[in-house]
Design a protein that fits this description.
Distance between the termini: 16 Å
Oligomer: single chain
Strand order of the largest sheet: 4-3-5
Radius of gyration: 15 Å
Order of helices and strands: HEEEEHE
Strand content: 15-25%
C-alpha cells in the first residue's frame, strides 16, 4: 500500500469517527494491539531485502528512502 492510500484512508476514518487514538496489530490476525508512539520513519530496503533506518541511510550510496515505517 502506498503512503497516499494510507493517508486518504486515515482522513476518511477521522472524518467519520473523529480524532481517535491510533494502534497497530502485532500480526495479521489481531492477536494483540499496541499504541503507536512514534512518527513515521523513512527506511531503505536493500537488494537483499533488509531494511535500514534513517540513520543508516546516511551511510548508503542512495540516500533516498524506499519505504516508510509507521511504528
Amino acid at each position: 500500500m502506498k503512503l497516499s492510500e494510507v493517508i486518504n484512508n486515515l482522513k476518511k476514518a477521522k472524518k467519520q469517527y473523529g480524532d481517535l487514538d491510533c494502534v497497530y496489530s502485532i500480526d495479521d490476525e489481531g492477536n494483540d494491539f499496541h499504541d503507536i508512539h512514534f512518527t513515521p520513519t523513512p527506511m531503505k530496503k536493500d537488494s537483499d531485502g533488509l531494511f535500514y533506518l534513517s540513520e543508516a541511510l546516511l551511510e548508503t550510496e542512495q540516500k533516498i528512502p524506499t519505504h516508510i515505517c509507521v511504528n
